[in-house]
């Protein structure tokens, strides 16, 4: 997969190690639940900084992976 196949992902909330994310297929009313540690490890952020952030990610047919922070203020 290349960058063109990446999709937008926004973390709405993180509670108890699980992040609820909005994607093109998962609206705010029915967010996808993803282990916060997976997003945090890919993006290089602590899990408590995930809510409200926008990422792109790859869908591998079963789960999202390779989360990349959009507009990283650290760069």
Notes on the structure:
The protein has 75 residues and is mainly beta. Helices cover 11% and strands 40% of the residues. A five-stranded antiparallel sheet has the order 3-2-1-4-5, covered by helices on one side. Strand 4 (54-59) and strand 5 (64-69) form a beta hairpin. The chain is globular. The model has no long low-confidence stretch (mean pLDDT 92).
Name the helicity range. Answer: 10-25%
What average pLDDT do the residues reach? 92
Q: Strand order, biggest sheet?
A: 3-2-1-4-5
Shape: globular
What topology does this entry show?
Layout: E1 7-15, E2 18-22, E3 32-35, H1 36-43, E4 54-59, E5 64-69
Antiparallel strand pairs: 1-2, 1-4, 2-3, 4-5
Entry keywords:
75 residues; mainly beta; 11% helix; globular
Summarize it.
This protein is mainly beta and 75 residues long. It contains one helix and five strands.
């Amino acid at each position: 997969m290349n960058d063109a196949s990446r999709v937008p992902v926004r973390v709405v909330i993180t509670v108890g190690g699980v992040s609820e994310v909005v994607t093109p297929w998962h609206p705010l009313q029915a967010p996808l639940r993803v282990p916060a540690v997976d997003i945090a490890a890919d993006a290089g952020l602590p899990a408590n900084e995930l809510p409200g952030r926008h990422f792109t990610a790859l869908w591998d047919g079963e789960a999202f992976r390779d989360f990349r922070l959009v507009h990283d203020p650290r760069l």
